[in-house]
Amino acid sequence: MKKILLLMASCCFIGHGSMAAGLQALPIEASYIIPAEVGGMSSSSLLLNGDWQFRFAPQGKWNTVQVPGELAMQGYAIEHDTPYLYRKSFTLPADYKGKRVILRFDGVYSHAILSVNGKQVREHHGGFTRWETDVTEFVRPGKKNEIQLEITDRIDDISYASGYAHHPIGGILRDVTVFALPETCFYDFAAETHLDTLYRDAVLKVSYTGRTAGNAEVVYSLTDPAGRQVPLSQSIFVLKEDGNNNELPVRNPLKWDAEHPNLYTLTVALREEGKEISRFSQQVGFRDVKIVKDRMLVNGLPVKLRGACRHDIHPTLGRTTTAELDSLDALRFKQSNMNFVRTSHYPPSERFLHFCDRFGIYVESETAVCFVDTYRQKNYAPGRTQDSAEFAPRYLSQCREMVKAFRSHPSVLFWSIGNESVYGKNFQDCWDWVKATDTTRPVIFSYPGSVGEKKT
């Protein structure tokens, strides 16, 4: 029987310091949406891009480099398996006091050890997935703070990105942000759309994990592409500790596809004791995707994918892109009569997906696992990690980070768990997790001949 396998892979190995008495850290592999507003704050987020300091050795001279940016493109030739250091000092606003403080890195290649104000916080494997850390215990609101990263281009990185780039990749490749959340908050937010059998009416299913001491509620409002309010039969839900699943029926919404990229705006407010404490908005596209026999159906209609693979690539920036470059890529794909992009061989920036949502481009979001036990250069070892228990956390964590960050984007048509690799237990574990977590999308593996009789 023909098997259709759909997946994704990427992973990180992490640790965390103990939290101060009376405070419970938010989970280390949680995914967050940066709130547009947090009660009592003038601004809930601070972008830490720009000038950072860098040096090769612990006692070496500090040099100024740009973040985000690839070091090789700034004149610094790094070496495999040789650590180097980044640091950044900044003043955390005083109104962050009493809030949970989250530090986000959108991409650091490939192994990072994070310290804040001289204390080691955690480590992370994987260069192209977003990772976030509750650093409340380690920062000082209203004072100067210092972030330090020890980064290594690991020759055993499962993405093999330095191998097919033909030079060692390294550095902070994407944005760095610090932001605040109220103590009552939620994470791992996902907005899924489910259409009825006639592809007419829909249910917007919203899931998330709550953190609350009680007396908190989530309030939704939905506007259509023209900015008109959409009536909801229920818009207020009690925030429960742990798992929450809210269903919002919507009558005959405009559907999203590559030819009609209709986007609704879901505004989510969190209230405690009747007072709003945070708010954010998420764009939503009502669409359904499934594979029936040998056809891919979007909203019940067969779709042919016309497109290409895409790397984050620029002649002077390397693996770093900008908002302007991401938007130009999406526009040029559209102008070339393409409707599909494969993000080979790692997840894109979320910014690129926002443009794909807006312009109408289908996306295969691929995890950063490449050439496992196939085409690797001999000096990149070990190449056979597909069944390694030691490497299993890297596969799974990168997979989870990608899916959690991108689940709400209508442009993501399906997930890929790896590129041209020999299948094994670690890929299967990723497939199992994705299929259990996201039932709305197919998952693929780009080297199906190696799958054999594995479960699909």
What is the CATH class name of the largest domain? Answer: Mainly Beta
> Rg to the nearest angstrom?
22 Å
Cα distance spanning the termini: 11 Å
Q: What is the CATH topology of the largest domain?
A: Jelly Rolls
Give the overall pLDDT as a whole number: 92
Strand order of the largest sheet: 4-3-5-11-8-9
Which CATH architecture of the largest domain is right? Sandwich
Protein name: beta-galactosidase
GO biological process, one term: lactose catabolic process
Family: Belongs to the glycosyl hydrolase 2 family.
Domain Beta-mannosidase-like galactose-binding: 80-156
Give an account of the 3D structure.
- The structure is a single chain.
- The protein has 456 residues and is mostly beta strands.
- It folds into 3 domains: 37-181, Sandwich (Jelly Rolls), CATH 2.60.120.260; 185-285, Immunoglobulins (Immunoglobulin-like, Sandwich), CATH 2.60.40.10; 304-446, Glycosidases (TIM Barrel, Alpha-Beta Barrel), CATH 3.20.20.
- 12% of the residues lie in helices and 34% in strands.
- It has 5 helices and 28 strands.
- It has helices at residues 161-165, 323-335, 350-359, 392-406, 425-437, and strands at 37-38, 45-47, 50-55, 63-67, 84-91, 100-105, 108-109, 111-116, 119-125, 131-134, 144-152, 171-172, 176-181, 185-195, 202-211, 216-223, 236-238, 242-250, 264-272, 275-284, 289-292, 295-298, 301-302, 307-309, 340-342, 362-366, 412-416, 443-444.
- Strands 4-3-5-11-8-9 form a 6-stranded antiparallel sheet, with no helix packed on it. A 5-stranded antiparallel sheet has the order 1-20-19-16-17, with no helix packed on it.
- The longest helix is centred in the C-terminal third of the chain and has 15 residues, at 392-406.
- The radius of gyration is 22 Å and the shape is globular.
- The termini are close together.
- The relative contact order is 0.17.
- Residues 188-287 form the Glycoside hydrolase family 2 immunoglobulin-like beta-sandwich domain.
- It comes from Parabacteroides goldsteinii.
- Residues 80-156 form the Beta-mannosidase-like galactose-binding domain.
- It holds the Pfam family Glyco_hydro_2.
- Belongs to the glycosyl hydrolase 2 family.
